[in-house]
């Protein structure tokens, strides 16, 4: 069986490796001049930056990918567990170093935020654990199918706590009386580009998996992950072509029969797997001659994007936290941030996330630090929202973010040797994700997870993989989507 994969993001490469390991003949076509999609990298003056992800969660999913396609993960990547998952700074001046081991969290909370907060969080996590056990097998690790949903609903019915009508904020309120714990929970909604007031209560599994499976870092930078998967593909005989933009999927007699490149070249295949954003597959002017899932997609909300500062800093403090979140002063101010994204404007006082790995491979010398600073941002939408290419906007917003950091106790403005600003428009140009949306569609709304495009398209022989398809965005879910899609393709081909 021959397969063409459109896009060499983590999802596309992971499905290619799995299909090749299953004995199939696989070609990956990537429009950019290098593989990796959102797992980008940039080098400036000896500083090496990851431009995309900075946090690895659920390593068992990655371990399965490597083990099932060749040498195990530990032989190809140096995955490091973080003893402190992240440092959180709140508007009232408290600082919380959240331990990387779940068992240590209650004590740390009691000490940092006050007696009783550890118990509140533990009760919430126990709830989240029940949601995880009820949903992961029949939803996160399965294709969306009527049979799977029926099994899921049977289990969920037993679990009044899942409360699909409730929001993540709503379920948090049942356990977390401390406002700072509420903000901590709200933050996890942003892992899927969502608003905690609209995201479903089932997103409680996000903090659960982070705290149960730990927070991890790839030594040498997270870009190493996608390089390792690309190497695995090549070792398995996959043809990986860069600079190869696919213009359309050829559909003959209702079945996907291959692709046509922008250059005019045609490639026939038994199966086409799209790792390109689902909106560019099914949306107007997309890869398909007709739009079988357009109505479903139209009911979803695109996820938010990110505004990134890459900072090459002079000087080094070995105590700099690996991950740090600087919250807005109050929860009302945090809500104003979510309101701003909904209204399509940059927030004036957003939460600021800083990734500062203590990794010699990323810095020019031992007296320097490489920082990645991220704030959630509305998508690039010159037609009616923010035009991130408007002259001066990116530089002004970067200054604003640096000033906010200073107000919140982290002033690095006089240490900056190199500063690179990356906007949602840059992300859109590089990966063709509409508006620079990070996670495809957001999880806002009770039905969002079920409206996300399925891994098997209504067009026979066409499959979807990656963050904009089921089960969603972020490295573990994208890797799971490759697992599901490869399984579906292999089931189909074994029946041919
Ligand atoms: C700033 C930022 C921070 C993030 N932080 C985290 C984090 O800490 N932890 C985490 O787990 N996740 C994080 N993510 C999300 C994570 O990076 C993504 O979910 C994941 O990398 C998406 O992989 P993908 O394969 O679905 O898509 P992509 O990486 O977007 O890959 C799709 C590929 O398809 C190619 N393509 C598109 N159209 C075509 C076409 N027509 N022809 C040929 N090729 C095409 C694109 O060029 C791209 O290479 C972050 C993302 C960003 C941008």
TrEMBL record:
Residues 10-489 form the Amine oxidase domain. The keyword Oxidoreductase applies. Pathway: Carotenoid biosynthesis. One of its GO terms (molecular function) is oxidoreductase activity. The keyword Electron transport does not apply. Its EC number is 1.-.-.-. Keywords: Carotenoid biosynthesis, Oxidoreductase. It is an enzyme of class 1 (oxidoreductase). Pfam families: Amino_oxidase (PF01593). InterPro entries: Amino_oxidase, Carotenoid/retinoid_OxRdtase, FAD/NAD-bd_sf. Belongs to the carotenoid/retinoid oxidoreductase family. PANTHER family: PHYTOENE DESATURASE (PTHR43734). This is Phytoene desaturase family protein. It comes from Actinomycetospora aeridis.
